[in-house]
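Last lecture ended with a question: if I hand you only a sequence, what can you say about the shape of the protein? Today we answer it with a concrete record. The protein is 4-diphosphocytidyl-2-C-methyl-D-erythritol kinase. Below, first the input exactly as provided, then the predicted structure, then a couple of comments.
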Amino acid sequence: MIKVEGNAKINLTLDILGKRPDGYHEVAMVMQSIGLSDTVEMEKTDGPIELTINVPWLKADEKNLAWRAAALIKEEYKLAGGVRMKLTKRIPVAAGLAGGSTDAAAVLRGMKELYALDISEERLCELGSQLGSDIPFCLLGGTMLSTGRGEVLKRLPDLPATWVVLAKPRISVSTAWAYQNYDAQGAKEHPDNERIQQEIARGDRKAVAGLLCNVLESVTIKKYDVISQYKQMMMQQGAMASMMSGSGPTVFGLAESKETADRIATHMREHTDAYVYVIRTTGKVQ
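The predicted structure:
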C-alpha cells in the first residue's frame, strides 16, 4: 500500500493565443502549485482497477481521470495485475484548481512506484498529456510557464512561499463553456508573461502580484458576478492581489503574511457561503 499526494494549482497568468488546427486553444500561462492536496491510497492487486472516492456523487468508473490514468499505465506496460485505489478529495471539483488532473498525475506516479516501472519524467508527462493538458504540470509542480495546449512546460524558479486564500463559490463553471465564450468576446487585457517571469526570478512577490492576469476572468464574471464581489472583498481585507483561477469559479488572494491571510479568510467565511481555504504556495514535486 502506498499513499500519493497531489497538489492543486492556481494560475498567476492565463492567456489564450488562438485556436489550433486540432481544436484545442494555444495558451500561455504561469502556473503555481499550492498546498491543498488530494490523497490516493494505492494497493497492487491481481484483479481489475478499483476506485472508491470520498465524494459519493463523483463517478468512480472509467470516466474518472484517476481510473483512466491507472488504465493507461496498465495497457501501456502490459501489466497483468490491477490496482485498488481510495481517493480522498479535498480540492473542490470543477473549480479551476486542476483537481481531476492532480488526481490523474498522482495515480501515474503511484503506478510507476507500485509496479517499479522504469519510466522517465518526460515519458510520464507524454502519457499524462494524452489524458489532459494540465496533467504534465501536475506531475512536476512548482512554478512553470505552460504553453502549447498546456503541455509544453518551462521550469521557473519557485515563487517565494506566499500565503494564498481560496474562496470557491457554490457554483461550477464548465471549462469548455468558458473557452467558447472567450472565442466570441476576446479580452481587452492580456498578461505580460515575460515580465512576470522576470519578477518571479527576482523573487519579488509584490511585483508578481501586480502582474496577475487571466483572460477568462471577464468571460466568467459576465455570468457570475459573485467572482467580482469575492475579488473586491479580498482586496478590501488587504490582499496584495486577487484573481480567478483557470476557468473559475475559485477566486484566490495573495497575502503578505499569515495574519493577513487569516483575516481575509475570516471575512470571507463570515460574509459569504464560499468554501474557504488558507494555504501556501509549494515547490516542485520531489
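Comments.
1. Residues 163-280 form a domain with the Alpha-Beta Plaits fold (CATH 3.30.70.890).
2. The first helix runs from residue 65 to 76.
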